[in-house]
Amino acid sequence: MANPEHLFTVKVVTNSGVIYDHLTSIIDFRAVDGQRSIQFNHTPLLTPLAIGEVTVKRSREMSQRVDHIAVNGGYLEFSNNVATIIADSAERARNIDLSRAEAAKERAEKRIKEAEAKHDEQSIARAQVALRRAVNRISVYNRYKH
């Protein structure tokens, strides 16, 4: 069993409110400069997040539970053994609607093709971000379900 003194709090907040708030032994996430992990008593940190998955490993007696969260940009701040993720948008894997995510992926791919035909670089860039977000949600959902 994990020692309670070696757990820390993870909160994920969006403009809709707090979507996640648990104790953890370690979190893994993608910052804009690469993959990172945080454990108890990590050095204070403020870093921008890339579109990616956040995994939260929660110790429960003899087993480890892992929560998967699709995060679409934002910031992670860690201090005093509290990790706060302020995300542009985020969804726990168990709450992702796969058919909605797949439809968003198809829409983004269609918008990219249309923007490329018009040589509209700004629209291409926006559609590519939408595509990365949709693919991230699908990927997190699939990892959670398997």
Automatic annotation (TrEMBL):
Where in or outside the cell is it found? Cell membrane
Q: Which Pfam families match?
A: ATP-synt_DE, ATP-synt_DE_N
Is tRNA processing found in the keyword set?
A: no
Q: Which InterPro entries does this one have?
A: ATP_F1_dsu/esu_C_sf, ATP_synth_F1_dsu/esu, ATP_synth_F1_dsu/esu_N, ATP_synth_F1_esu_C, ATPsynth_dsu/esu_N
Q: Which UniProt keywords apply?
A: ATP synthesis, Cell membrane, CF(1), Coiled coil, Hydrogen ion transport, Ion transport, Membrane, Transport
Q: Quote the cellular component terms of the Gene Ontology held in the record.
A: plasma membrane; proton-transporting ATP synthase complex
The protein's role, per its UniProt record: Produces ATP from ADP in the presence of a proton gradient across the membrane.
Q: What name has this protein been given in UniProt?
A: ATP synthase epsilon chain
**Lineage of source species:** Bacteria, Bacillati, Bacillota, Bacilli, Lactobacillales
